[in-house]
Specification:
Layout (H helix, E strand, L loop, with lengths): L9 E10 L2 E11 L4 E6 L5 H8 L7 E6 L2 E3 L4 H7 L1 E4 L11 H5 L10 H17 L16 H13 L5 E5 L7 H16 L3 E5 L3 H7 L2 E6 L2 E8 L5 H9 L13 H4 L7 E8 L3 E8 L4 E5 L6 H8 L7 E6 L2 E2 L5 H6 L2 E4 L3 H4 L7 H6 L3 H4 E2 L2 E2 L1 H14 L16 H15 L3 E5 L7 H16 L3 E5 L3 H7 L2 E6 L2 E7 L5 H9 L3
Parallel strand pairs: 3-8, 3-9, 6-7, 7-8, 13-20, 13-21, 16-19, 19-20
Antiparallel strand pairs: 1-2, 1-4, 4-5, 9-10, 11-12, 11-14, 14-15, 17-18, 21-22
Helix pairs in contact: 15-16
The structure holds adenosine-5'-triphosphate and magnesium ion.
Length: 506
């Protein structure tokens, strides 16, 4: 980390930015030194992404000043920021899915992607960058849309490094990553900072900030609640109370009583010999009303595919599913929804949300029949019901008419969950429900999921965060490479044991 006498690489002062009806940033100061990892923390909607979009030239501030290497600059466009050496890896990756890896990396560069020689040069340089990022196996010619989320993020990183960068901004880069991919990311960050590159790092995971952060700035309601605190020495309760203005309990809610788990009622959902060629081998499981079952495994272990298959978004190659004693028509989302199943998917932007619609419509979309009055829609009822579901999840802003795309990442996630709360499912399939959700709302979300279970909903939960699976689930099914390697009550497992099982099996 730079010594205090070095002038900052970047100083942002008094940054203010309003959107219609919201002051997203209100006089924020931030300074970043060369070679440091500066973490930005704050609840959902606190203004983190907006601040870095100002720095990336994607938003123009209403007020405030940006000084870069001693000179006042105006970042009129993303290209202007790039040219200074400021690169951004966005929360919602902004790659062009139908172009190749190399074309994405060199999009907008002088090394144009047209022409044979140039293309070959672009591919060669892309291959070098991918190697530097620890992913030599990614083919520069591969279409980006066919890569995993982690792979796409590496491409985004390669694009950043294809410029002569002095500052890389990463907006929740670890949210879609497995533990070993997070290790790779941290190695990349360490390499960069060794070379004097500064990193602004946004994450909701406090343990990550302790691991790689030098300093922390905490945003709350568009203001800096604290600037430049030492990342490793500031006690967690202090950080949390700066973020939330209150003390948040980390405790998970009480588990279901033993009789639900062990003797239970009749299963509400039974899967027998369910298999999808190339994704997962035959699995059998049961979900009882009132219990939360966790699926643990790495990306690619088949956990999301199982959820999608149960929900009818994929057609299994073998097996059967019974819901409340009746066979479920497989490969049909309509049949699954009619039978009382709900899915909150992993990729909310592409899979779940109607980005051009209001919050209210996004929440009510699966319950519209409830608000139909003949040929017209009871909009008042729709809005009131949305408001109630949103309140349960502390969704911000508290305005059902706001467009969903104007919500912060974490609040969009809450809207997807609100949809299934409103619908009232028998079986709730949750894929990474707390991804991008801040620590305060996380505790509320855990309590809410447990409350739904207590009311008789059966929950099948996928999470990359092993403590979350163990803390929330009653029973855990551990998957590796598409096979069930272990099933046990959560209290019989611990984090190390699950890690062993998901990685290698011992
Ligand atoms: N384009 C926009 N139009 C209107 N409001 C916006 C727009 N972009 C952001 N906002 C609002 O600005 C506030 C700050 O949002 P921002 O995305 O910066 O939050 P964040 O700290 O990144 O949250 P998260 O942790 O959920 O990603 C929110 O109230 C959000 O709804
Ligand atoms: Mg954000």
């Amino acid at each position: 980390m730079a010594t205090p006498s070095t002038p900052p690489l970047l100083t942002m002062s008094g940054i203010t930015k309003s959107f219609p009806g919201v002051r997203a940033l209100d006089g924020v100061d931030l300074d970043v030194a060369a070679g440091e990892v500066h973490c930005l923390l704050g609840q959902n909607g606190a203004g983190k992404s907006t601040l870095i979009k100002v720095l990336a030239g994607a938003h123009q501030p209403d007020e405030g000043e940006i000084v870069w290497r001693g000179e006042r600059v105006a970042l009129k466009s993303p290209v202007a920021a790039m040219n200074l050496g400021i690169a951004t890896i966005y929360q919602e990756l902004d790659l062009v899915r139908h172009l190749s890896v190399a074309e994405n990396v060199f999009l907008g560069h002088e090394v144009a992607t047209k022409g044979f020689v140039r293309r070959r040069e672009a591919r060669q340089r892309t291959a070098e960058l991918l190697k530097r990022l620890g992913h030599p196996e990614i083919e520069p010619g591969r279409i980006v849309g066919s890569l995993s989320a982690a792979g796409q993020q590496i491409v985004s990183m390669a694009r950043a490094l294809s410029h002569d960068v002095k500052l890389i901004v990463m907006d929740e880069p670890s949210a879609a990553l497995d533990p070993d991919e997070v290790d790779n990311l941290f190695r990349i960050v360490a390499d960069l900072t060794d070379q004097g590159v500064a990193v602004i790092y946004i994450s909701h995971r406090l343990e990550e900030i302790r691991r790689i952060g030098d300093r922390v700035t905490v945003l709350k309601d568009g203001r800096a609640a604290a600037s430049g605190l030492p990342a490793k020495d500031t006690p967690t309760p202090k950080v949390v109370s700066l973020m939330t203005g209150r003390n948040v309990e980390y405790a998970f809610p009480e588990k279901a009583p033993e009789d639900v788990v062990v003797r239970g009622g009749e299963p509400v959902l039974t899967a027998e010999g369910l298999a999808l060629d190339g994704e997962f081998a035959p699995v059998d499981f049961e979900l009882r009303p009132g219990e939360i079952v966790g699926l643990a495994g790495l990306v690619g272990s088949g956990r999301s595919e199982i959820l999608e298959t149960v929900f009818g978004a994929r057609k299994p190659t073998a097996g059967r599913i019974t819901v409340a004693g009746k066979p479920l028509r497989l490969g049909s989302v309509t049949a699954a929804v009619a039978a009382g199943l709900g899915l909150a998917p992993e990729e909310r932007k592409s899979q779940a949300l109607l980005m051009t619609e209001s919050v209210s419509r996004n929440v009510s979309i699966s319950s519209l029949s409830r608000f139909s009055r003949g040929s017209w829609l009871d909009r008042g009822g729709e809005r009131a019901a949305t408001r109630a579901a949103a309140r349960d999840l502390s969704l911000r802003p508290d305005n059902p008419d706001a467009l969903i795309r104007t919500l912060s990442g974490g609040n969009q996630q809450k809207a997807v969950l609100a949809r299934w709360l409103l619908r009232g499912c028998k079986v709730l399939l949750l894929d990474e429900p707390t991804r991008g959700v801040d620590v305060g709302a996380r505790a509320e979300l855990y309590a809410l999921i447990r409350r739904l279970a207590d009311e008789g909903v059966a929950v099948l939960l996928v999470s990359s965060e092993i403590p979350e699976v163990l803390g929330l689930a009653d029973r855990v099914i551990v998957l590796r490479e598409g096979r069930v390697v272990h099933t046990a009550p959560a209290h019989e497992l611990d984090e190390h044991r699950v890690l062993d099982l998901v990685m290698e099996g011992s």
